[in-house]
Amino acid sequence: MFWKALEDLHRWQRAFLPDAELPQGIEIIVWLLKNKAHPKPLKDIYRSSRFSEPTLRACLRSFMDSGYLELDIKGDDMRNRLARTTPKFEAVIDAYLGVSH
Fold first, then answer.
1. Model-level pTM?
2. To 10 degrees, what angle do helices 23-34 and 53-65 make?
3. Staple 89 to which of 10, 27, 68, 83, CB 3.0 to 4.6 Å?
4. How far is 16 from 11, CA to CA, in rounded Å?
5. With contact defined as beta carbons under 8 Å apart, do 90 and 69 qualify?
6. What is the pLDDT of residues 25-84, one digit of tens each?
7. Burial class of residue 94, CB neighbours in 10 A (0-12, 13-18, 19+)
């Protein structure tokens, strides 16, 4: 049955979060979910990731273009940007949790 759950997960990812098929996309999704209650600066994911900063930026941009992620800029300092999930992202995650249980 594990293979069935894995197959369902990949089917769901392709339908709702195409970037989740990429290893860096999965890393970003996990990071966003772990830090949802207390958003952290983007520099934290750049430092902790095994992927290059340009690779992560491209994936983050894709999430923003899809409406799943928004950046919160504190003051005039562009270096202090927090990544926040959007209601659209939350709805997709909630829908998946409802389908998978």
1. 0.80
2. 70
3. 68
4. 9
5. no
6. 989 999 999 988 888 888 999 999 999 999 999 999 999 999 999 988 876 766 778 899
7. exposed
